[in-house]
Known about the structure:
The protein is of the alpha/beta class. It has helices at about 10-20, 45-55, 65-75, 100, 120-130, 160-165, 205-215, and strands spanning about 1-5, 30, 35-40, 60-65, 75, 90-95, 110, 115-120, 140, 165-170, 190-195, 200.
Amino acid sequence: MELIKTKDFTEKNLVQKIYDVLTKDGIVLLPFDVGYALICTTKNALEKIIRMKKRPLGRPCVVLGNHTIFKEIISMKKAEILDNFPYPIGLIGKVRRTKVMEKLPTKLILKNKIGVFINMGNLGNEIALYLWDRGKLVYGSSANISNNGNHYLLRDVEEEIKNSSDLIIDCGKTKYGAVDPTTNKNLGSTVFDIVDKKIIRKGILFKKINIELKKMKLL
Length: 219
């Protein structure tokens, strides 16, 4: 396990370092705008993340994407309406049947649906694009034991999660952070099902996201 800080690297060098770890079956623990996350690009590493998190069956991990990747992976009429969506969000939709999708691990798909998270911040966007340009997808989930809530500081991530990661990147506090007053747990990303037109999880920036989705007549 290697620990580095974002301030010690240019974004280009950091993305290359992450790529090198991911393509060697590795797992990277890193900051996104909505909290610290675990990412990988191989089936073996994805299965390890599921075990690390003690993630229950029926709760697939997701694809880290951008607007381009979202449109390639998810089948949606007039998907370009989301091109200028400004907030971090998880989007769930039906899988497009393409050659790229045929290689997806089955543990990312549930009832022919898959989740793609977009607008996770500059680092997340750059990583997703860098691997996409090289014919690979990034899979991931929040860096926590399932149901423990997101972590906005590296020091709060469970030790067993950190100890099982191959590369850890520390940026200090993430851009966003909020506590659910009903559970007293840190919030994760807001998640929206574009097929059922339903909010699956009210998370970070939910009120703003809700307004934007209604403006777009998606909700």
